[in-house]
Amino acid sequence: MAGLNVSLSFFFIVVAVCEAARRLSKRSLPAPVYGNLARELIGAFQLGACCLELRMLVVIGPWGGGYGPDVILTLLFLLFLVHGLTWDGASANPITSLREFLTAEASAPVAAVRAAAHLAGTYAGDALTRLYWSWELTDFHLIQNLMGRECSSALQTAVAWGVLVEATCAFFYHLTLLCFQHSRPLYRAPAVALIVTLLAYTAGPFTSAFFNPALASAVTFHCSGNTLLEYVQVYWLGPAAGKGGSRGLPGPAPGAGGREVGSAQSRAPPRANGSRWVSGRRPPPETCLGQVRDGRKKSTSPLRLAPVSHPPAPAPGIPPPRPWLLGLLPRSGSRSVSSSRAGSFGGGGSEGSALDREVQATLTA
């Protein structure tokens, strides 16, 4: 039991130091440097150090300390629960950086910096843990030092089955992240820790369920039993295929599926988004009236009535036009009023001239 207490203390110290470094770098470094380099480096270091110590308990604990799978799985769940609450959005996985580059979410230099930070952080955690083992604080560490870097391969099945197992684990892991990407860390961290524990319990006897190329490279690539090409196929190509399959599925809309009860988003009124509505509520009736189809397109703006034009009022002192004069008004393409009257009455008599002057005065007004 003393060896387990020492391991728990090691976990606590690593998480505390990484959290302090994370907060210090967040305050002192620019946002792009922190988000693309420091945060990923610290997260990968925390993951590598804790997982290597946990793997030592997996290998030596059952026959050296009598620890069953229940103890190991409980520690695994607690570790990933703490990781999810303290990582501050870091992925600590090179496959995520590769996917962001292929989908144009990140440029090539940014993706390369993140992947390098993942590998550097994981190998730094591996070096620190082996230095900690050299102190031989427990019998477990003494046995581990006697073993040195001699270890057996984590791949305990055929290469093809190993690729399938790692791809399946990566698929369900990243699918869980996709489903809970809009949830609070308080809800997302237990779900991710639970799926990691289930995958480790199911696929652990076959490939150790790494589904993280950086972690597998630091932990098992130097072990004998398989070639480097076989390790790359299982622990790099397998997670990459599983990650690609999970991204091919449609994700939930923001707030859907993972919406928190009582959140501001769930209480917000429906907002128009093109011709659709984000909320499931019925749109207001004034908007429904505006959605009129005229045969060519569908308008989503409220219905507006055109203003009614009225004829101008006559000027003071001038009588309004008489009804029988409306037929005498000129039309487009017709002759003038005087010529039409002259043609009608056979000349320009005094009676016609007076009528013409009255019509001209009315038109001028």
Describe the protein's architecture and organization:
- It comes from Ornithorhynchus anatinus (Duckbill platypus).
- Keywords: Membrane, Repeat, Signal, Transmembrane, Transmembrane helix, Transport.
- Residues 246-365 are annotated as: Disordered.
- This protein is mainly alpha-helical.
- Among the domains are: 1-150, no CATH class; 151-248, no CATH class.
- 63% of the residues lie in helices and 1% in strands.
- It contains 14 helices and two strands; from the N terminus they run αααααααααααββααα.
- A two-stranded antiparallel ribbon has the order 1-2.
- The longest helix has 34 residues, at 31-64.
Compact overview of the structure:
This protein is mostly helical and 365 residues long. Helices cover 63% and strands 1% of the residues.
Keywords:
single chain; 2 strands; mainly alpha; elongated; 14 helices; 365 residues
- The percentage of residues in β strands lies in under 5%
- Rg, please? 39 Å
How can the largest sheet be summarized? Answer: 2 strands, antiparallel
**Count of helical regions:** 14
- The percent range for helix content is 55-70%
Order of helices and strands: HHHHHHHHHHHEEHHH
Spans where pLDDT lies below 50 across 5 or more residues: 251-303, 332-351
Q: Quick check: average pLDDT?
A: 77
Spatial gap, N to C terminus: 110 Å
